[in-house]
Specification:
With about 300 residues, the chain is of the alpha/beta class. It has two domains: about 55 residues; about 210 residues, Protocatechuate 3,4-Dioxygenase, subunit A (Sandwich), CATH 2.60.130. The protein is about 25% helix and about 20% strand. The chain contains seven helices and twelve strands. The chain is elongated. The relative contact order is 0.15. Bound molecules: benzoic acid (BEZ) and fe (iii) ion. The site of benzoic acid has 9 residues, from helix 4.
Length: about 300
Amino acid sequence: MSDPQVTPEQERHEQAVTDQVLASFEQSPSPRLRELMEALVRHSHAFVREVRLTEPEWAAGIAFLTRCGHITDDRRQEFILLSDVLGLSMQTVTVNEPGDPRATESTVFGPFFAEESPAIEPGGDAAQGASGQPCWVSGTVTDVDGTPVAGARIDVWEADDDGLYDVQHGDGRVTGRAHLRSDDHGRYAFWCVTPTPYPIPHDGPVGDLLAANGRGPMRASHLHFMVDAPGLHRLVTHIFVRGDEHQDSDAVFGVKDSLVVDFTEHAADETPPDGRPLDTTWTRAEFDIVLAPAAKEHTA
Ligand code: BEZ
Ligand code: FE
């Protein structure tokens, strides 16, 4: 509850602190850094004043950030996770969208991309032994005018049906990730496993924050894509499984309607597009990728 009893004199004292801090950045040699620091000071001071932050609350916030620091190492980045659950990662993605309504929308990168992944041929298997129901994904890569993009590099990665990425198994396995190229007509296709929901890491301070606010750690089922082609804007996105129970409560706010795709289920005796024999049910998803032009370099 904010305190309605802030006198005009108290207001002046508080504004004087903010003004003094703002003035300390006047000599910053970088105009951009100055802009960032001034906005950070204005908004953070406004937050403290709006909520009438108590000293124990300030100390609790510092203790929380300290815990985030202690749990962070080369493999675990609690600050990015914090940014994710506060929607700051998604807001940054949204602010930086290329802005062409014809282009495929972006979403969060997430922590589980790996530079090294197996190269697969068109129609190859990105599951690489990950457990789960086989899933055939196909589509095209075009530019915003509909011209096919040949040779685009398509990286895909996903969790297995235990809800774990390969790196989380901690045994050096490389599964659920691969890269391939679009063909001369801009087409691509690969096998993977049908995405299933999984929790973001929630055994640390960010998990405690979610629990304290009655929020869950689950991500809506998804498959990650990163698509690169010369002269075009790199696309980082996911496709989401239509009908997923976490569609409206994704822990990191990554779901966009345009990225929700039908994963149609097929019986084991239905022959898949590449004729591969299967003894289980399988799913199929179509995802056409449209890349925006690369942003023009501009100098400040
Ligand atoms: C993921 O999609 O893998 C992810 C994204 C944000 C935080 C944690 C996981
Ligand atoms: Fe993910």
